[in-house]
UniProtKB/TrEMBL annotation:
It is an enzyme of class 2 (transferase). Gene3D superfamilies: 1.20.5.1930, Histidine kinase-like ATPase, C-terminal domain. Keywords: ATP-binding, Kinase, Membrane, Nucleotide-binding, Phosphoprotein, Transferase, Transmembrane, Transmembrane helix, Two-component regulatory system. Residues 417-511 form the Histidine kinase/HSP90-like ATPase domain. It comes from Paenibacillus qinlingensis. This is histidine kinase. The chain crosses the membrane at residues 7-27, 33-51, 105-133, 139-157.
Length: 516
């Protein structure tokens, strides 16, 4: 509160000295004032000022205020009562009581004091209070103005305190860090904006969400898709937007841009034109500055992490290339030389075994080189659908299996871990078909919507036993099943002996909601 601060006390005391001097000048102009009276007024005001400029217990503060009121009552009694030039000065003595009591008690004290003055002076003059107040209408006017001033100050203090709490909520670092860690930056900022904008509905739609802020709610997804299809023509505007239920709602829409001027989303506030005040827009600006700073920092951290991972991948790939790959290549050369140097007597018996070993070594060498390519991140430089097409062509090349690939829907930007899970699922399933299924055809279907990914892989091979032991031992998809479940997805198998196998996977695009 203002009067709890030392600066506020100094300002208040300066005002009281001014009112005292004005009262003395007005009174001296029309009356002869004894020197003792002047000295007493100045001395008491000096002592009053010294007391209130010191740290003091509540009881001493209230006692000093009561003594001041008694002294001002004495001044009024000797200078004209309710028509005294010291009347306003006496009223201001009530202000210091607010330092020690609530507003409700403060109003009671003011009303009691304002009633006490005419009551005392009317009883002294042996007249009724009603008649006395009619003779001193100026007192009623001044008292009413004083009450209006107190009420205005009270309302202003409430408004300022409310806005101050909003600003404190915006810039409070500890709650921001804790809430952002547990519920995410976007949900936290939405909740803060809702509170500082007087419980209006707020939606933050980010086009490129940084780690670990990957998850979007269904509302964000809906409005994000709507705004992408109906791009706002201006940076800040009001527009009517259809809600997911079909109801048309008024929204204030602001385009979010980073420090490089790139657009990264929109802010929507459920409000009509002219409904948001200047303070509302100021709070929005403060929070968006914080969001942009957080977005930039997270982007820098993600880029640094990706560079570190890419560097580590390159190091591992280079070590594999310089080590295991070269050894496999050397073994294949040695096997070729061994084939050429086999004695004629044992050639027919040993040659098939050497050829089989050579074939396995070449397969291992080819798989190792593909592993190096994946480590070097080459598959991430192209679209997921294109990468799967190349994968199917590469794996089924030089085999009797004919691949078919169907795709429905397309997403420009998807979480990398979802793309990797889909890619490796198709890769694992296709390799298993080549090695074990004795199939002629493999059909891969991928469908993506705003809700989920659906992946179906079918073959016309000999089928398999779906017991857990046989599934893990023969197809090796247990790890992939765990990986998809970690994305809140599901993986299922359907197979009949002699009629092939179907693998179906569903991965929700919003990881907080499991697929049902």
């Amino acid at each position: 509160m203002f009067f709890q601060k030392r600066t506020g006390i100094y300002v208040f005391l300066a005002c009281r000295w001014t009112l005292l001097l004005i009262g003395l000048l007005l009174y001296v102009r029309d009356h002869l004032v004894p020197q003792e009276f002047l000295l007493m007024a100045v001395l008491f005001q000096t002592l009053y000022s010294l007391v209130h400029t010191r740290q003091m217990p509540r009881s001493i503060g209230i006692g000093a205020t009561v003594m001041d009121l008694c002294f001002t009552m004495y001044l009024l009694n000797h200078t004209g009562g309710p028509s005294s030039p010291f009347l306003v000065y006496s009223f201001t003595g009530l202000v210091t009581i607010k330092r020690h009591v609530t507003w409700r008690v403060f109003y009671s004290v003011i009303l009691g004091y304002l009633v006490l003055i005419p009551l005392l002076f009317s009883s002294v003059s042996s007249t009724s209070m009603y008649v006395y107040l009619r003779k001193h209408l100026d007192y009623s006017v001044i008292a009413l103005i004083f009450m209006l001033c107190v009420g205005t100050v009270h309302y202003g203090v409430k408004v300022v305190h409310k806005e101050y709490r909003k600003l404190a909520r915006i810039y409070a670092s500890s709650p921001y860090a804790a809430s952002a860690k547990h519920q995410g930056v976007v949900p936290y900022l939405e909740s803060v904006l809702k509170k500082v904008l007087d419980d209006r509905d707020v939606i933050l739609c980010l086009t490129a969400v940084r780690e670990p802020e990957k998850v979007r709610g269904w509302r964000q997804t809906y409005f994000l898709n709507y705004l992408k299809q109906n791009m706002p023509p201006s940076h800040k505007m009001y527009a009517n937007v259809p809600s997911p239920t079909g109801e048309v709602l008024p929204f204030y829409i602001e385009t979010l841009r980073d420090r490089l001027g790139n657009m990264y989303g929109w802010l929507l506030v459920n409000a009509d034109k002219e409904e948001l005040s200047f303070l509302h827009h100021m709070y929005i600006r403060f929070l968006l500055i914080r969001l942009e700073a957080d977005y930039f920092v997270r982007g820098e951290l993600v880029n640094a992490a990706e560079k570190a991972v890419a560097k580590e991948r390159d190091t591992i790939a280079q070590n594999i290339h310089d080590g295991i790959t070269q050894e496999l290549f050397f073994i294949s050369i040695q096997l070729f030389q061994l084939k050429q140097s086999l004695p004629a007597g044992v050639r027919d018996e040993i040659l098939p075994h050497v050829v089989e070993i050579e074939k396995k070594v070449k397969e291992s060498h080819r798989e190792m080189r593909q592993f190096i390519i994946e480590l070097k991140d080459e598959k991430r430089k192209i679209n997921l659908h294109h990468a799967i097409e190349k994968l199917l062509h590469r794996v089924t090349e030089h085999t009797e299996v004919q691949p078919t690939f169907e795709k429905n829907g397309w997403i420009a930007h998807e979480q990398l871990e979802i793309e990797e899970a889909i890619y490796h699922l198709v890769e694992e399933a296709t390799n298993n078909v080549i090695k074990h299924a004795q199939a002629k055809h493999i059909d891969v279907q991928i469908e993506v919507t705003s809700v989920q990914w659906a992946i179906t892989i079918r073959d016309d091979g000999m089928g398999m036993n779906l017991s857990e032991e046989n599934l893990q031992g023969r197809y090796g998809l247990g790890g992939m099943e765990n990986r998809i479940k970690s994305l809140n997805g599901s993986l299922s198998f359907h197979s009949e002996l002699g009629r092939g196998t179907t693998i179906t996977a569903y991965i929700p695009r919003e990881r907080r909601l499991a697929y049902v």
